[in-house]
Amino acid sequence: MAERYDLCIIGAGSGGLSLAAGAAQMGAKVALIERGEMGGDCLNTGCVPSKALLAAGHAAQVFRSSAAFGIAPAEPQVDFAAVMAHVKGVIAAIAPNDSQERFEGFGVDVIRAPARFTGPSAVSAGDRTITAKRFVVATGSTAAIPPVPGLGEVDYLTNETLFELEQRPDHLMIIGAGPIGCEMAQAFRRLGSAVTLLDRGPILPNEDPDAAAVVREALEAEGIDIIENAGISGVHKDANGRITVMLAGQSQTLHVTGDKLLVAAGRRPNLDLGLDAAGIEHTPKGIKVDRRLRTSNRRVYAIGDCREGPQFTHAAGYESGVIVQNALLRLPAKVNYAALPRVVYTDPELAQVGLSRAEAERTLPGVAVHDWPFHENDRAQAERRTEGFARIVTSKGRIVGATFVGKNAGELLHPWTLAIGQKRKLRAMTGAIVAYPTLSEVGKRAASSAFTAALFGPSMQRAVRWLGRLP
Ligand SMILES: Cc1cc2nc3c(=O)[nH]c(=O)nc-3n(C[C@H](O)[C@H](O)[C@H](O)COP(=O)(O)OP(=O)(O)OC[C@H]3O[C@@H](n4cnc5c(N)ncnc54)[C@H](O)[C@@H]3O)c2cc1C
Ligand SMILES: NC(=O)c1ccc[n+]([C@@H]2O[C@H](COP(=O)([O-])OP(=O)(O)OC[C@H]3O[C@@H](n4cnc5c(N)ncnc54)[C@H](O)[C@@H]3O)[C@@H](O)[C@H]2O)c1
């Protein structure tokens, strides 16, 4: 006997949970189906453990970087088992927010089984058959494994197994220098591992290259061996369990050998749920959706990592709000990613919202770029964190992009997210009073630099001299 719901959500990760909480509290009858842990990637194998590990690395680094303040530096004693207990402790502290009990408290029917479409408007989960007015696929993604010869024969790590390590790697090799690769390279290096970071292109290829260069310099200064434009020709394991990554250079073949290998080479959407039976179109990049997040089956929506588009927890959360409007309130809401921020949580952080300089110059008229370096900021000087810059990009005076790289860049980004979302001009940001001495002054100074020539130029000087002659 089929059970009928207003909304059936498949996947209890960042997207599915936000939607289930909102929809149930607004009075909808909701089924939420989850085949694994409640909380999905973000809580269990993604954002939360990675940021907890980075925080441990940061704590270790404080010991090493005190000399500039007149305090003798020291090499910290890292108890790796205790570090990993800290990571698990952070997950455990957040887990109640995502728990089955909490969602049942909202009135959600939580079903713990793999879901599969059996037709255009029915899903099976365990021994249950679910029908619903609307379905939302929120099944997330899994680490993509590149077709490197020999990779299948070594016990490589992915984000699903990395946080289960019990011993610190002596030498961690990482394939992929995107956000996952860079963040984990720094965390493990600071915790005492040797780290080699390999990418077939440059590090952080999706970011402003000037900003990525600041991160590259910081990672290299901490002793991470970065090999860019690496053509990985094969991987093999020797009798002692050591793993060798072979790099085909132009004239010779280089080898890197270590005890652990992390694959962080992008993501593959989770699409193994009978999408074809429901007439839901998909590509290897994910489920195809329109701007209302509708799939080719008009009863079915898709959000988060499983659809084609940006893969962030806050993107999945934002999209759940769009679904509430479309599927529950029957309002034709569309997604707009123009002000979607993203942050790489290395130290220094790299934060971006809106268009990068290159994207704006390629696509918009009247583009101007306003930079301000951290070394011109008094707080950055006091804290000896002068690396980095702010870059504000405008088109005909309207703010269309902001790039921050430096200490706490992710926190500095948010006023700019608001400004872009509200289509503000640069003057809206220069008028605000910013507390002294804060790093936030960097953004304001970048914006103000646009007006320096007009404010302190010959015309203004002439005008002030003329006004000075008046009684
Ligand atoms: C190491 C790492 C670090 C990251 N750090 C950040 C960060 O700092 N900030 C950020 O914004 N993003 C970060 N991300 C990305 C973020 O984790 C994802 O964008 C986010 O989790 C996507 O949410 P989702 O709901 O689409 O998928 P998920 O959170 O993965 O949830 C999908 C759920 O669906 C379930 N599921 C799949 N198939 C089925 C099925 N057939 N039946 C039932 N259930 C199913 C899965 O078990 C899973 O629980 C990180 C990712 C990784 C891997
Ligand atoms: N701070 C954050 O918000 C955060 C952190 C981690 C992950 N994420 C999300 O998860 C997604 C996945 O992260 P990611 O770092 O795995 O992916 P990514 O796609 O951003 O980067 C993967 C990197 O691997 C490289 N690569 C791919 N195949 C390769 C090969 N055969 N040899 C060498 N290099 C190869 C690519 O050139 C690229 O630089 C991100 O795009 C992001 O959406 C976000």
TrEMBL record:
InterPro entries from the UniProt entry: FAD/NAD-bd_sf, FAD/NAD-binding_dom, FAD/NAD-linked_Rdtase_dimer_sf, Pyr_nuc-diS_OxRdtase, Pyr_nucl-diS_OxRdtase_dimer, Pyr_OxRdtase_I_AS
Name of the protein in its database record: FAD-dependent oxidoreductase
Domain named FAD/NAD(P)-binding: residues: 5-318
Cofactor(s) recorded in Swiss-Prot or TrEMBL: FAD
Database matches in SUPFAM superfamilies: FAD/NAD(P)-binding domain, FAD/NAD-linked reductases, dimerisation (C-terminal) domain
Highest taxon above the source species: Bacteria
Every Pyridine nucleotide-disulphide oxidoreductase dimerisation domain range: 341-446
Family listed: Belongs to the class-I pyridine nucleotide-disulfide oxidoreductase family.
Keywords on record: Disulfide bond, FAD, Flavoprotein, NADP, Oxidoreductase, Redox-active center
Keyword NADP: yes
Source organism of the structure: Novosphingobium beihaiensis
UniProt cross-references to PANTHER family, sorted A to Z: MERCURIC REDUCTASE
